[in-house]
Amino acid sequence: MLLVMYLHIRITPKSKKDSIEQTGELRYAVTVTEPAEDNRANERMCEVVARHFSVERKQVHIVNGHRSRSKLVEIRE
Question: 48: domain range?
Fold first, then answer.
């Protein structure tokens, strides 16, 4: 059985450290050290989310907001 979870994420690139904090039901604030250039911040955010939810990186996908600080992220298990 395929389980899918959707998260609303507000990302802050170029931070001092990588972190994830729950701000509401299925809402998270993520900070990453990578800059918002060449998709680096998005990739790092997906890695941080995958580590937090104990899933592989390939199970985390950005559904909406590739060029925005507010993103809709899908996790498939």
Answer: 4-76
